[in-house]
Amino acid sequence: MKTKKNRVVITGMGVVAPNAIGLENFLSAIQQGTSGIRFQQNLADLNFSCCIGGIPQVSEALKSDYLTPLQLRGFNSSGILYGCMAGMDAWKDAGFPIDENSRTDYDSGMVFGTGTSGIDKFREAVYKLDEGKVKRLGSTAVVQTMASGISAYLGGILGLGNQVTTNSSACTTGTEALLMGFERIQSGKAKKMLVGACSDHGPYIWGGFDAMRVMTYKHNNSPEKGSRPMSASASGFVPGSGAGALVLESLESALEREANIYAEVLGGGINSGGQRGGGTMTAPNSEAVQKCIANAIKEANTTAEKIDAINGHLTATSKDPVEIENWTQALDRKGKDFPYINSLKSMVGHCLAAAGAIESVATVLQLKHQFVFPNTNCEDLHPEILKRIDSSKIPTKAMKTELNIIAKASFGFGDVNGCVIFKRY
Amino acid sequence: MNREALITTLKKIVKPYIQDEEAFANLTEDTDFINDLKINSANLVDVVLDVEDEFDIEIDNDSMEQMLSVKVALDIIESKLSQ
To answer: Which of B13, B14, B17, B18 is the mutation pick for testing A, counting most A CBs within 10 A?
Structure first.
């Protein structure tokens, strides 16, 4: 017996990004190509090679719009803060109230990912522990540093009663969260799922990447020029942070309550290259990437020629030309026949675990408002990319155009891949 | 510090954690932290840490377990202060 699959739409979004906070500000920032990359003095003080990064500009006053004075006591987890802000904004944007006295909503759940939770709180705790002061940790050291801290905080704020969990798959996390929530609604196990991801900022989360020399150290004096996806002079990624959140809902439920619909999620693919066939802990197996994209298109019941635009992973490392090659192979499209492609990372840097979520919000805004946001810092396109696709497909200015389907992909350490297909509704 | 002054200081310490404003406004020595002030039980450890900081005393596990009401808290603080 073939079971009926629910169609899934997006009815709310929230975002806390280095270049803007809140959906309206973010829309205007990505239309204008606004950079959120700044010089970070604390990285310089700690002898980082890369001293620039993307940190959302959250004031103390803004924090208290989201968290209570009690929640903010001893609070030191930037990722959980960003996730709560984006998640609460998305929930309200979808038209749902936030009421601490509401009844548990068993039809609504959450998959909200992260890489590491509360790394600054963890550091604080480790220092106390090493001084023999375990009793001084306070009551929130666990909830701020457990991986599922973000879903625990948000689940309680919203009163969700369906599955409430946190996923983690490196830089694929946000995209994977979206697809996990999608599948839960598609299969009828939930009506609404808040999906998204968040990532901490600062030296303790970024240090390991600096040690690997995968972050650029050539733009400490020109922060806004530092993140250069698809550029010939790309010299490593710029670290970012923040959160993105989307409310997924069954089409039936959305129509019933006459909700605003941003776009439909047609489907997607998740796989791993198994660290075989050229794939390693840190590099993708190209065959798996192509399979992931092809599978996403198949799952979405569409075809490669119908894809109008791509929001790539494109981090500004030497792997960008490989990603373009993989898209051309997976879609069997190249040159002028290739879809428009862009990378949000030129404006916000690589927001790590949150990247897929923030970039999905940007992708869906493009569908809703029928435009392609600009790629910045790629005036010198990489020659290996130009061999494969035409430069007209890499817009450097915001472009109004009709878009029906956009593919968004993320790839992460551990050789994991995710690709989601969004459609205009 | 007399008993009155201790209560005033203790009120200031528990204020961020209370979830029943009325009970807090009418706080007496008989007020219970959990049943009356509706302080989340997980936050009791934070109250104890704040008491330790405020009075520069150390509260052992046995004392902490008993510190569930204003009266007991005041007794414990007084006895530690006099040590």
So the answer is: B17
